[in-house]
Write a structure and sequence with these properties.
By secondary structure, the chain is an all-alpha fold. It has helices at 2-55, 59-72, 77-89, 93-106, 111-123, 127-138, 146-164, 167-177, 185-197, 201-214, 219-231, 235-248, 253-268, 277-296, 305-319, 327-348, 358-367. Among the domains are: 176-268, Tetratricopeptide repeat domain (Serine Threonine Protein Phosphatase 5, Tetratricopeptide repeat), CATH 1.25.40.10; 277-367, no CATH class. It contains 17 helices and no strands. It is elongated, with a radius of gyration of 36 Å. The protein starts with a helix and ends with a helix.
Length: 368
């Protein structure tokens, strides 16, 4: 009879031990969860303090607070991005790059991290390297407002390409954003200016005409349209737009400069349509005379024989009397002479004072 009682006693004891272990495990689990919850609350509090300090412009203090949060929750990607941003704002470029490298090694498609890396590289003067990270940001993953963030990343890349004067790359980035860019006046005006910088004056003209359709008295749009038409060689249309800009703002120095240049070109350019043979010949003579004067300022006794010979031909062309029947032939000869003189002048003399003078622009047009 003792054996069954002993067996029941063992089972009861085992059950009590098991219940005790289970109770301890439950208590330990509860305490661990409570500790984790409290740690998370503390990390969140520190992180929010860091964000608040960033908003106030105290980036160095923000770096310290976010690092404290990361000491509690290591590997929190949101904290790591915020840390990299604070480090960049504090001028700690190399630290920011290290933080972002770690982030991107675990997730190369992280849109915000790629955008921050592009900004770090720009700050370090590594614009060429930054371009690839801008592209990764544009095509990367964003938790919030993906379309808006990608558009803003592209606009930052566009600004970089404009600074680098990378015209083909700039145009390639402008085209995808043209139709879905914000329609506020500042953005549209900026796009028009950027198309001009990308050597796409026809697209720039479309943008500025769209603005003027809604706001006929918009000064920057008239000036921008004038520059677009000027770049396409339509000096008469450009002249009208700069005149319109000056009616809106008579003291606008930029429009005055462009209008004066248009006036000079319309009086000097012998290649304009609608000119009579006599007028074209007269302008060709004036062009040779202008180039001759420019070359004469740098002509020296030891100048190359080629330059001296061309200068002599120019002197003869300016003084020549031409029969009306031969004006067309003489015009072509004068234009060739002016172009040859200009090419030699570029090799032998100091660069022209201005590459956008009426004379330089006409000769550039002749060389096409």
């Amino acid at each position: 009879m003792a054996k069954p009682i002993a067996g029941r006693s063992f089972i009861a004891t085992f059950g009590l031990v098991f219940l005790a272990i289970a109770g301890l495990f439950a208590a330990d689990t509860f305490l661990a969860k409570t500790d984790r919850a409290e740690s998370h609350i503390e990390a969140t509090r520190l992180f929010q303090q860091g964000q608040s300090l960033m908003a106030k412009g105290d980036s160095l203090a923000a770096v310290a607070r976010i690092n404290d949060a990361l000491a509690i929750e290591r590997g929190n990607n949101d904290y790591l991005r915020a840390l990299a941003e604070a480090q960049l704002a504090a001028g700690e470029n190399s630290d920011s790059e290290v933080t972002l490298t770690g982030l991107l090694n675990t997730n190369s498609t992280d849109g915000p991290a790629n955008l921050l890396m592009a900004r770090v590289l720009m700050r370090e003067g590594r614009g060429a390297d930054a371009v690839s990270f801008f592209h990764r940001a544009i095509y990367g993953l964003w938790k919030k407002d993906p379309e808006g963030n990608r558009r803003r990343a592209r606009l930052e890349l566009i600004d970089l390409l404009a600074q680098q004067n990378s015209k083909e790359e700039l145009l390639a980035e402008l085209l995808p954003i043209q139709d879905n860019a914000p329609q506020d006046l500042d953005t549209r005006t900026r796009l028009g200016d950027l198309f001009l910088r990308a050597d796409s004056p026809s697209r720039a003209a479309d943008v500025f005409r769209g603005i003027l359709h809604q706001m006929p008295a918009n000064l920057p749009a008239h000036r921008g349209l004038g520059q677009s038409e000027f770049a396409q060689g339509d000096y008469r249309a450009a002249q009208r737009d700069f005149q319109a800009a000056l009616r809106i703002s008579p003291d606008d120095a930029a429009s005055r400069h462009w209008l004066d240049l248009c006036d000079q070109l319309l009086q000097l350019d012998p290649t304009l349509r609608g000119l009579s043979a006599d007028e074209r010949w007269r302008r060709s003579v004036a062009l040779v005379e202008f180039v001759q004067s420019d070359v004469g300022a740098c002509l020296k006794p030891d100048s190359p024989p080629e330059l001296q010979e061309l200068a002599a031909k120019a002197d003869a062309a300016v003084k020549a009397h031409v029969n009306p029947a031969h004006e067309s032939e003489a015009s072509e000869a004068n234009l060739d002479l002016a172009e040859q003189l200009w090419q030699v002048r570029r090799k032998e003399c100091q660069p022209p004072a201005s590459s956008d003078s009426a004379l330089a622009l006409v000769l550039k047009r002749l060389a096409r």
